[in-house]
Design brief:
heterodimer, A: mainly alpha, 82% helix, B: 281 residues, alpha/beta, Rossmann fold, four-stranded antiparallel β-sheet, 14 strands, 29% strand
Chain lengths: 211, 281
């Protein structure tokens, strides 16, 4: 498992360094320039793309066939991808949460400083990211990346709709975004359930796949 | 000592191809070459041995254990070189070493570094920048650096230049000096297999045509050249295959059936395979 994670760490850094850099830059924009929903959601979205990119790279290289010849089980191959997704989402959530936290105490932002509930709303982005990626992964494990990306496009469309709805609230800064705590809780629980179900489905589907 | 691989009545059915009742045994300490034309079922057999695909019938034992039980544990003792090493393009050989050190319990970083040096594989070049031969050499280095007891090699010498191919063959030979080490190797380059193998198995259209000790095969079959009349005098059951040329007829026959007075030459494995396949059609 550690070896699989290390492999994806190398691949993510080599192919996705720009995603990490952009996330950090967007974090800085939020912290020092005021939080804009578009910046916020784009930064979160980048970390949804990366696990899918890694899966596509694996498929192109036929890593899944090679991994079958190594002392790792298929369940471990699947588990590693979910842990990677978790780690990448946690990274973007941490960067964004830290940015909003800095913005909360940034005197330069004046009235635009976000409050505590905005900070908590920011954290609700994390389970949402997980849920969106979770929708795609089982399809990729069952049908490969080419067919699986239809689900990926569907998830992207969801993000797009989300972005549209978000911006239609006519808010330009986070201080106005306060998601009620019970909705945050429900959406987090639902996301966790989707993530778990997706993991189980991927394991089951991948075990029966033949290359 | 237990056999390295025991296969009995192995069957796998696809829409347009079937591996049909294949049985073979690779004793420990030996090298077996799997020869067959494209689509004969060599890769399917290797994938079934590694439990990468599910069999429809038969049984496979690796070092005395069913290959589906404790598959992860068994793979600690198996080094595999597939026909395509599935490493992501951005990885370097050095990074691959770090990854494998965390995958194999018995990974030997020192041995890996030595193999890379011996095979002239650059440590810091990206995998995508390596030639096909270099990629294969990296695959061989990975397969041998965790002290496996069994090597399973799918066309490992294809894409290698003759000098490196010879070195690889020497490395495989060295590997089997330890009598607990065995190799199952498939290749189109029959001359490499002839140099290397103790046992030869012929696969043709999913069926095992023959599985025999190489020396016995060479001892048992002879190539006879002569006129049509001479060759037609040999009992049909003893003729493995024949080929007509403008200068006469060439036939591979059982040693016992060589007519007296006719010169019989030593047969090589490639000739034997080609003649048998032609006869089978």
């Amino acid at each position: 498992m550690k070896g699989l994670l290390l492999k994806d760490f190398y691949v993510s850094l080599r192919t996705g360094w720009l995603y990490f850099a952009v996330t950090l830059v967007f974090g800085a924009i939020i912290a020092f320039g005021g939080a804009r929903p578009f910046v916020f959601l784009t930064a979160a979205y980048l970390m949804i793309i990366l696990p899918m990119t890694v899966l596509a790279i694996d498929e192109r290289a036929k890593w899944h066939v090679y991994a079958d010849a190594l002392p790792v089980t298929r369940a471990q191959v699947v588990a590693e991808k979910y842990i990677l997704t978790l780690l990448l989402s946690a990274f973007s959530a941490a960067v964004l949460a830290a940015s909003v936290l800095i913005a909360m105490f940034n005197p330069l932002l004046g009235d635009e400083r976000p409050d505590l509930s905005s900070f908590l709303s920011t954290l609700s982005c994390f389970p949402l990211e997980l849920a969106l990626t979770s929708v795609c992964i089982p399809f990729v494990f069952r049908f490969g990346f080419d067919k699986g990306r239809i689900a990926y496009m569907f998830a992207c469309a969801l993000v797009g709709v989300g972005l549209g709805v978000f911006t239609s609230w006519n808010v330009n800064d986070l201080p106005n975004i306060n998601i009620p705590s019970h909705i945050m809780l429900i959406s987090s629980a639902a996301s966790a359930a989707v993530f778990g179900a997706s993991w189980a489905a991927s394991t089951l589907l991948y075990k029966t796949r033949e290359f | 000592m237990t056999n390295a691989i025991e296969i009995k009545n192995l069957t796998k059915n696809y829409k347009d191809f079937s591996l049909d009742n294949v049985s073979l045994t690779l004793p420990s300490g030996c090298i077996m070459g799997l020869i067959g034309e494209n689509g004969a079922g060599k890769s399917t057999t290797l994938k079934l041995i590694l439990n990468m695909i599910k069999r429809d019938g038969g049984e496979i034992k690796i070092m005395g254990r069913d290959n589906r039980e404790a598959a992860k544990l068994l793979k600690e003792d198996i080094g595999v070189v597939p026909d395509e090493i599935g490493l992501p393009a951005v990885l370097t050989a050095k990074q691959v070493g770090n990854i494998m050190a965390n995958i194999f319990r018995n990974w030997d970083a020192e041995a890996y570094a030595q193999y890379l040096e011996k095979l002239s594989v650059p440590e810091k070049k990206k995998y995508s920048e390596l030639s096909r031969g270099m990629k294969m050499k990296l695959g061989i280095a990975i397969a041998m650096s965790h002290h496996p007891k069994l090597l399973i090699l799918d066309e490992p010498t294809s894409g290698l230049d003759p000098v490196i191919r010879d070195e690889a063959v020497d490395m495989f030979n060295d590997f089997t000096r330890d009598e607990s080490h065995s190799i199952l190797i498939s290749s189109h380059i029959v001359s490499d297999l002839e140099k290397l193998c103790d046992y030869i198995a012929f696969l043709h259209k999913g069926r095992l045509m023959l599985c025999e000790e190489k020396d016995r095969l060479k001892e048992e079959y002879k190539i006879v050249r002569g006129s049509k009349e001479v060759i037609s005098g040999i009992p049909a059951g003893s003729v493995i295959g024949k080929k007509e040329t403008p200068y006469g007829v060439e036939a591979i026959v059982h040693k016992s059936a060589v007519p007296s007075g006719v010169e019989a030459g030593a047969v090589d494995i490639e000739q034997l395979f080609v003649f048998m396949v032609r006869k089978e059609g």
